[in-house]
Design brief:
It is built from 9 helices and 7 strands. The protein has helices at residues 16-27, 41-51, 67-74, 93-101, 114-131, 140-149, 163-175, 182-189, 193-205; strands spanning 7-12, 32-38, 55-58, 83-88, 104-109, 209-215, 221-227. The mean pLDDT is 85.
Length: 228
């Protein structure tokens, strides 16, 4: 397991009021730390080279160059690797598409609520943790979860998922010392194994639960789950 450390963040926006608000919001999220603020594109590139942030919150309207150009230059070999989440008031489909083509992981529309930003950062942190686990993915499903984790709305809940049962699963899983299987969890909360597995997979997709295969004597893996 890699050593846990803060995810460093660079905020890029030409409005000091916006950067101050984002600074306060980011620093309230456990596991994140703002290391720099830039109000122009050139200042953003210089700050990225200096601080090597893991994540850049990037506005698209900057006084000296388009934000999309900044995103493009951040991907150059001479720049330290950084992930980009766009925070912009622009809603045109062409702009969103261009941001994706420039490598943006996500696109938040201004004004961004603190809760929305927090959930986005937490999903990003869950994605980082999965990618830095150092292991090898055993199944396509595990890779699918990583690609979905940044884009899955945590507020959306399928009709087959009850909020009360979802919370019961999380509470029960929080009480186990290490991890639990769907069969074990089913016995703990009084549901069928299939129901427990469905809720565990849903929570794993949301990045709240981590599932890993454990191989027994027969060689067939048993999926074990724990709260992140």
């Amino acid at each position: 397991m890699p050593e846990l450390r803060d995810i460093t963040v660079l905020i890029v926006d030409d409005d000091p009021v916006v950067t101050a608000a984002l600074h306060a919001q980011v620093n309230r999220v456990l596991g994140f730390r703002v290391v720099g603020i830039a109000h122009t594109g050139h200042a953003a590139l210089a700050a990225a080279a200096r601080f090597a942030p893991r994540l850049v919150l990037l506005d698209l309207h900057l006084p000296d160059m388009p934000g999309l150009e900044v995103a493009h230059r951040l991907r150059r070999p001479e720049q330290p690797p950084a992930d980009v989440i766009v925070v912009s008031g622009r809603k045109e489909s062409a702009t969103v598409r261009a941001a994706i083509q420039r490598g943006a992981l996500y696109y938040l529309v201004k004004p961004t609520r603190a809760g929305t930003l927090e959930q986005t950062l937490l999903r990003y942190a869950a994605t980082v943790e999965q990618l830095e686990s150092g292991g090898r993915f055993a199944e396509q499903q595990e890779i699918d979860r990583i690609f979905r984790s940044m884009h899955l709305d945590p507020a959306s809940r399928p009709k087959s998922i009850s909020a009360a049962t979802e919370q019961a699963v999380l509470d029960a899983l929080s009480e186990v010392e290490e991890d639990a299987s769907a069969h074990e969890l089913a016995g703990m909360i009084g549901v069928s194994r299939a129901t427990a597995r469905r809720y565990l997979e849903h929570l794993a997709d949301r990045g709240l639960v981590e599932g890993r295969p454990r191989y027994g004597p027969t060689g067939r893996p048993q999926h074990r789950y724990r709260v992140r």
